[in-house]
Amino acid sequence: MAKIKRFGIIKTACFMGLYGVFIGLLFGIFLLIYTQVLKTVLETTTAEMGMLSLLGIGGWLGLIFAPFMYGILFFLVGLIFTPIMNLILKIIGGLDLDIEIE
Q: Cys-Cys with 75: which of 17, 29, 40, 97 at CB 3.0–4.6 Å?
């Protein structure tokens, strides 16, 4: 039985930041697909071209900026909550891991 007694703050924050980039990329892809479908539907029902072009640009900008925004946000969350998690681990005595080495 192994125990985790603390997590490194910077390493955990970096992991959380990379995880946020992945989540932001998925969100950006879904946003792009949504805006393109919505743009196609609206093109058949309305002649308002100004809003349609902004809608299309917004989908592509979401694909570009969402991974950066989510990455930064998740990194900051990792920086804030890792010390709190380490304090809780100190209070409860760590996490037990059952590791089998073959």
A: 17
Report the candidate in 14, 7, 11 with the shortest Cα–Cα distance to residue 71. 14
Which structure tokens are listed for 70? 């989510």
pLDDT of residue 40: 75
Give the closest residue to 66 by CA, choosing from 21, 11, 14, 5: 21
Domain ranges of the chain: 2-97
Query: Pairing relation of β-strands 95-97 and 2-4?
Result: antiparallel
Phi-psi region of 6 (alpha: psi -120 to 50; beta: other; left: phi over 0): beta
Residues in CB range of 96: below 8 A, 6 or more apart: 1, 2, 3
